[in-house]
Specification:
alpha+beta, six-stranded antiparallel beta sheet
Length: 463
């Protein structure tokens, strides 16, 4: 499906091109190896060349040229995604956004940036004006804002603002279509969902506009709790307490903290579950007041008063999918899942998971807001033994326990998250990518419009 590569490369002469097989393969990969299934399936995936446009005009030229020569295009930023979102299943061109790294404007309540800006740089720039961004992944030090919007869904800040699905968290997207004559389109309001979390299947982002808010003085906190159920109940109470200003709220079942949070080990107690929080300095007294009457929860670590022997990672680098990364560095057999958990009957749900799987699953939750309601999302660690057993675990969680799984061991939009065809994204792709050359193989609805999810089904490449 790579089309007329020779003609395409000749037509793109003068641009920043890379055809070296070794570096092209490296730039064709993301963190797909978090999944042992994707690690096997995607190990040989590579583009034919990499092109890095320097501005929007060059993006237009790349897309028009690849359209003419039937060459697929897969957009990538820093490659910090975990599901193969930025991997070119059908070869062709990887469009690298490394040169599109300019902050265009900082307003009183918003920022405008090109997609290749590293998110940490956005935060630092906002803070120079006394502001801060709302959401960022645990990989903020390397991840780009375009990749986060196109491939992510939530992150640090979700306990305050909800995820990227909250329309208030994205103000505007600017993208280029892949047609004979590419168009530059701006999306705002409800239209943003057409391109957000779409893996770049329906256009190339060239500009994003996000809200910014008055900055807070945040402090990292770890709380030790006698049991995961108690930690969950306490986390919900803390999440709902308006007197405590929070940027992150996470829970970890023992033995996750003692096994994998090695550099924070001196502050932790073996056998305890843990709550990780980012709390504003001004509301720390309110947090301490909540904990003081409890005999099952103790403030184990405050970054502003702790005296570690060396520099510690930010607490958000213990949470979200950094939890999986830290576990993988110590035990390569670890992988993970993503689950929805009901607010009602949480204790029963956790008991059912423990009774069914024992220590094969170790629970880890991130707390967000769905329609304003504080809600846990499960990212349990899984002790991987075989692909067959991992599929059985997923089917059991969904079929027997009735808990939806967003499968991180799938490469498609539908199987990896939404579990259904997103009609708006599909119709938008028909308008913006009529040949289906943008990141092919990532959208089942393009080839199977009537697709419905089947437990255990693997859909990797388009038919």
């Amino acid at each position: 499906m790579s089309g007329d590569l020779k003609g395409c490369l000749e037509a793109l002469s003068g641009l920043d091109l890379d055809v070296n097989p070794a570096t092209v393969q490296q730039k064709s990969r993301d963190l797909y190896w978090y999944s042992p299934i994707l690690k096997r399936q995607l190990g040989a995936v590579t583009a034919d060349f990499v092109v890095a446009p320097r501005d929007e005009e060059e993006v237009v030229r790349v897309l028009a040229t690849c359209w003419k020569h039937d060459v697929p295009v897969t957009v990538r930023g820093a490659g910090t995604g975990n599901y193969g979102q930025a991997m070119p299943l059908f070869g062709g061109a990887v469009l690298h956004t490394k040169h599109l790294d300019r902050i265009v404007r900082v307003g009183s309540d918003h920022m405008v940036a090109q997609p290749g800006v590293v998110i940490e740089h956005l935060e630092k720039t906002a803070r120079e004006s006394g502001k801060e961004i709302r959401l960022f992944p645990s990989t903020a030090g390397t991840a780009t804002i375009g990749g986060f919007i196109a491939g992510g869904s939530s992150g640090v800040g979700a306990i305050r603002w909800g995820g990227l699905r909250n329309p208030a968290n994205l103000r505007r997207l600017r993208l280029v279509t892949m047609e004979e004559t590419p168009r530059v389109i701006e999306l705002a309001g409800e239209d943003i969902s057409k391109a957000a979390h779409a893996y770049g299947v329906n256009g190339v982002l060239t500009e994003v506009e996000i809200p910014i808010d008055p900055a807070s003085d945040w402090v990292d906190v770890l709380i030790g709790v006698d049991g995961f159920d108690k930690a969950t109940a306490l986390a919900i109470a803390l999440g709902e307490d308006e007197a405590i200003s929070k940027r992150m709220l996470s829970t970890f079942e023992a033995p996750i903290p003692e096994l994998y949070f090695r550099r924070h080990g001196p502050f932790l107690v073996d056998g305890e579950a843990a709550i990780a929080m980012i709390v504003s300095r001004g509301t720390l007294p309110a947090l301490e007041a909540c904990l003081s009457p409890l005999d099952h929860a103790h403030l184990r670590f405050r970054a502003d008063t702790a005296k570690p022997s060396g520099k510690l990672p930010a607490v958000y680098e213990l949470a979200w999918n950094h939890t999986t990364l830290r576990a993988l560095r110590i035990d390569p057999s670890i992988t993970y899942l993503q689950m929805m958990l009901p607010r009602e009957g949480l204790t029963e749900s956790f008991a059912a998971v423990r009774d069914t799987f024992g220590d094969e699953l170790m629970m880890h939750c991130e707390f967000t807001r769905f329609d304003g309601v504080v809600t846990p999302v499960g990212l349990p660690l899984v002790r991987f033994t075989s692909e067959e057993r991992l599929e059985e675990i997923i089917m059991t969680i969904e079929g027997k326990l009735g808990l939806p799984v967003f499968n991180p061991h799938r490469v498609t939009l539908e199987e990896g998250g939404m579990k259904r065809t997103d009609v708006g994204q599909l119709e938008f792709k028909k308008q913006t990518d009529p040949k289906g050359l943008m990141n092919p193989g990532k959208m089942i609805a393009w080839t199977e419009p009537d697709w419905t999810p089947v437990a255990g089904k693997t859909f990797l490449f388009a038919k």
